[in-house]
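no rush on this but wanted to send it before i forget. theres a chain ive been looking at and ive put its sequence and its fold in token form underneath. please have a look and point out which stretches look like helix strand or loop to you. thanks a lot i owe you, the record is right below:
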Amino acid sequence: MKSWFGLLLLLTLVGCAASRTDPVLFADDFSDPHSGWSVWTNEDSFAAYLDGGLRLFGKRPQYDYWSLAGRQDEAVILTVEATVLGGPLDNRFGLICRYQDAGNYYAFLISSDGYAGILRFLNGQLSLLSAPTLEYTPLIEPGLTMNRIQADCVGERLTLWVNGQVVTEAHDDSFSIGDVGVWVGSGVEGGVDVLFDDFLVLRGGS
């Protein structure tokens, strides 16, 4: 996986040199445990540099966990490889952009049973921006496997991609800048366990 990440980064940089668009702002394959992500360990969850990536585990049912890169970005495109290692398929995982604090950010999520959506947390209140409910899509590889997730946060336009194809989009202007990160949520049973790898932040343009 790491060798493919190096090749992807090289090809991206070559393309950026030619077009001067979407340059790489940040890249992390999580091989350096001091690259700046928020990590912790407690009795029911952890975020750690582990197993060649950044692993998030949460045992509490119906609870959300995230790790942040410690950045402040505006118009960006985020990509990551997310591999579900265990737990029930009733889960959710993905990317965060424009994080202000625990009650204010956007989240781009998918689930192991095939559902996807774009969320907004505003003053602690959850809204689903992309549709009235999470929508099923066959573009998600189901079960305990890897999916490549992309989140476009460009102006008011928010777009969720899975495995190279657009799944859903929304428009919102609540936040214009903030931190980026990865995010997991557990269902009614808890036990979500996801390994994130090959995280990229690209300049999203105007």
Q: What stands out?
A: The chain is about 10% helix and 55% strand.
